[in-house]
Amino acid sequence: MPADLPPWILDHRRTLGDRIRDLRVWRNLTQEQLASHTEISRDTIQRIEGGRSDARISHLWRIAAALDTTVAELVRE
To answer: Could you report the per-residue pLDDT of 16-37, keeping only the tens digit for each?
Structure first.
């Protein structure tokens, strides 16, 4: 993670990752299955869920669709 990001951004990243992981597990999907449904690499899914990477908006749209939710729900505060 870049050291120049403020802590509040890193917190939001972790919250987003936790929310995606929780929804994925609730839907009984593995990271590999989510990657397949979204056409996003498993490594990228893993980095997003772990809060180690910013998610592109196109990734969020794909993830939200695969998890039967909205982008707004994923990024809510």
So the answer is: 999 999 999 999 999 999 999 9
